[in-house]
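User:
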Amino acid sequence: MAVDSIRHSDWLITLIFLIYKIYYLAGTDSNGAPKTGDIFETPAAAAGCAVLMVCLSAIVRIGTDEIWDWHKNVWPTVIAVVLWLSSLVLMILLIADIDTAVEANKGIINVDLYKSFYLSWIGYPIVSLLSIITRFFMSCRNGESYKGETPQWLTFTKDLSYGFLDSWSKGVFALWTAYTAFNMHLLEAPAATSLN
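Assistant: Predicted structure:
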């Protein structure tokens, strides 16, 4: 629980900066403002959406402890499922908007590496869902004897998965932009400069 609390705090802060940087790299208009796709008017709106997305996910993970005790009271479970699905929809909207902006401005530039940084975000709800489903079935199988313990293998799997996702979507992304600052190329990809 403590690790997931720290993890959500990290995402809450870093996603704001990542979103601005990703939109800036997608292109800027004549005033120098980052371009967005068809869903969000500004990167600030997308960043606000990301904050809401992380907060909803945190409520499910931290506030309801992944609803493992669903059989005790159905209403918190229903609310948690709605919040988790809402968080997922917000992420899909973010990814779709970013991808629209990138596709509209890429021209002939190869954007495969660039796209991998935000498309890898899809892995976060998959890992979350794995944990929720695992603990759900543990509570079904073990009934009243299950007290919400998270198995060590599940904790390890989550940490490893989230660590890989963070390393790629934040760490390698940072290296890509840093390499560009020194006129170098990462993984033979084009420089991390604005697409227009």
